[in-house]
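Action item from last week, closing it out:
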Amino acid sequence: MSLAISPIEGLTFVYVAVTETPGGVKPHVKVGITGNPRSRLASLQTGSPHEISFAQLLAFTDRNSAARLEKEFHRTNADAQLSGEWFNMYFTEAYESLASCFQRLDLPNVEWELP
């Protein structure tokens, strides 16, 4: 599954990027923000030996809300952090954590979710 859409003026996206890893190996997940998902995916792929895809994109009209969600996810999942902003978890774990963070922060301005 891969989502990579062009920028849409006025929107900031929270993305969940996942690595495609060999069977039995827990994938790596990155949650970040970008104004241009297509460009961000290309830059992530450049530095990785594994195929990377977006498993989820959330679109916000307010960049601050997107940044708060990203920061809360990173704080909440520090125990699964690898290096930088990569986490050792399955997408389902990341999705559940992100949803929990979203509810806890009571964030406005989410436009849509692309599964």
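Closing note: Helices lie at 37-46, 63-76, 91-105.
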